[in-house]
Amino acid sequence: MAKATFIEAAYQILKERGIPLTSGEITKIALERNLIETSGKTPSATMAAGFYRDIKEKGNNSLFVKIERGKFGLREWQKMVPRENLFRKGTFKYAAYEVLRSKNKPMSIQEITEFAKQRNLFVSAGKT
Hints:
3-stranded antiparallel sheet, 3 strands
């Protein structure tokens, strides 16, 4: 039986598990189940590169999305995932999302930053 490509194996594993996983977790499962074959020393890096390449080349037509740092999921899940869970708490993206959602109007970056700082929505050690 022919081995799956890294991307085919990743899709199968994510579909079965139903939760976002890191490229390392996906690679480990794929190797344990003998879904993929590799002679390289860093198969999880190959898996991650496959995700990034697929997302970059196919854009919204990619089967995959980056859920958070290092974790990938299936694009088809986006309809099921509440939008606020797409950003890590404490990040500027999360703060901007929360501010814009609560204000429900366009705002400048400076306005978003000021409002987010007042509400302690993110932490920054920087001056800008």
